[in-house]
């Protein structure tokens, strides 16, 4: 009772390069965001020398990030992923734009 399937299975590698590129891009995105998180305090100290950005960052950012994460985690199955991504990128753009506006208003 021997099997005639003595051939080795065929190894499919046609998607390996695409998967490596996607993983590299995702890893780079994690490194860039981690780097900005580590250096944002120094940047704000240079940008606003008369204020105390370390107090603002530690008091404002964590509750906002925790609340956003909690809402998105709780309603993850009900929120359309496309809209969630669009809203996240829009919030990021608006906050970056507001930083530029505050910075330019401070120099006037």
Automatic annotation (TrEMBL):
<keyword id="KW-0813">Transport</keyword>
<feature type="transmembrane region" description="Helical">
    <location>
        <begin position="86"/>
        <end position="105"/>
    </location>
</feature>
<keyword id="KW-1133">Transmembrane helix</keyword>
<keyword id="KW-0472">Membrane</keyword>
<comment type="similarity">
    <text>Belongs to the SLC29A/ENT transporter (TC 2.A.57) family.</text>
</comment>
<dbReference type="GO" id="GO:0005337">
    <property type="term" value="F:nucleoside transmembrane transporter activity"/>
</dbReference>
<keyword id="KW-0812">Transmembrane</keyword>
<dbReference type="InterPro" id="IPR002259">
    <property type="entry name" value="Eqnu_transpt"/>
</dbReference>
<feature type="transmembrane region" description="Helical">
    <location>
        <begin position="56"/>
        <end position="74"/>
    </location>
</feature>
<protein>
    <submittedName>
        <fullName>Uncharacterized protein</fullName>
    </submittedName>
</protein>
<feature type="transmembrane region" description="Helical">
    <location>
        <begin position="21"/>
        <end position="44"/>
    </location>
</feature>
<dbReference type="GO" id="GO:0005886">
    <property type="term" value="C:plasma membrane"/>
</dbReference>
